[in-house]
Design a protein that fits this description.
Oligomer: single chain
CATH architecture: 4-Layer Sandwich
Number of domains: 1
CATH class: Alpha Beta
Distance between the termini: 67 Å
Order of helices and strands: EEEEEHEEEEEEHEEEEEHEHH
Structural class: alpha+beta
Helix content: 10-25%
CATH topology: Double-stranded beta-helix
CATH superfamily: Mitochondrial biogenesis AIM24
Strand content: 35-45%
Radius of gyration: 21 Å
Shape: globular
Number of helices: 5
């Protein structure tokens, strides 16, 4: 069964939201807690499973829900359906500052692999499951572990990432990126890790011990500010002076904290 064909518009710059326009009886699925607003003709229902419209029976539904739990996501997927007689809109917002990217899964050959918290919403018929990273090195040191999200279908899907998101297309070459900056890639891309350099560079270069290597043919999406990097910076600044300095972000604030 083909995915529902939905229209959409993305608003904002650094803290974006996506507004989806649904025809009567159309449905969009989303992660729990991402809805911003919805018009009166739209109802929502939390359902077990992976978000696809295919019927897999109770056992299949439980298995798919369990797979989602492995990625740290909710067991339930929220379905928003237009039960009115005219077009209605529902909007979703990302959980932290960054960009929202709309990707046509049909143009991505039906499959997209992404980091485990990148998925935001998609047309009904999109299967949201997991992809195990079969390479030991990438699983242990790749920043996302063995488990990634897999989106399958032929409709629109919306993913989000921190900072600015860019798209790169590989034609057989290899791209090396910070492990946390990788957001998503198409199925024609091979993902692995390699050491960042010599021992001195690995220990003191500030780029981490390993880099992600992407090679093959297809598109890759990268983020400029991984949430983990943002959280580390906030925590390190908060711990400086026990978080009691009102001017700690300025040069004088840091100096006064040191003198105390």
């Amino acid at each position: 069964m083909r995915s529902h064909e939905i229209d959409y518009k993305i608003y904002g710059d650094d803290m974006q939201m996506v507004e989806v326009e649904l025809d009567p009886r159309e449905t969009v699925i989303a992660e729990a807690g991402t809805m911003m607003y919805m018009e009166s003709g739209i109802n929502f229902e939390a359902k077990l499973g992976d978000g696809s419209s295919s019927a897999g029976g109770l056992f299949g539904t439980l298995v798919n829900a369990g797979k989602r739990a492995l990625t740290g996501e909710s067991l339930f997927m929220t379905h928003f359906t237009n039960h009115g007689q005219q077009k209605q809109r529902v909007a979703f917002a990302a959980p932290y500052p960054g960009k929202i990217m709309a990707i046509d899964l049909d143009e991505a050959n039906g499959t997209l692999i992404c980091q485990k918290d990148a998925f935001l919403a998609a047309a009904l018929g999109t299967k949201v499951s997991i992809a195990f990273n079969r390479r030991l090195g990438a699983g242990l040191f790749g920043g996302e572990g063995f488990i990634l999200q897999k989106l399958q279908g032929d409709g629109m899907a919306f993913i989000h990432a921190g900072g600015t998101m860019i798209e790169r297309r590989l034609h057989g070459e290899t791209l090396r990126v910070d492990t946390g900056c990788l957001v998503a890639f198409e199925s024609g891309i091979t993902y692995d890790i390699q050491a960042a350099g010599g021992l001195r560079s690995m220990m003191f270069g500030g780029e981490g011990l390993f880099l992600a290597t992407l090679s093959g043919h297809g598109r890759v999406w990268l983020q400029s500010l991984p949430f983990s990097r943002l959280a580390d910076r906030i925590l390190s600044n908060a711990s400086f002076g026990n978080g009691n300095n009102t001017g700690e972000s300025s040069v004088l604030g840091g100096l006064s904290s040191f003198l105390e």
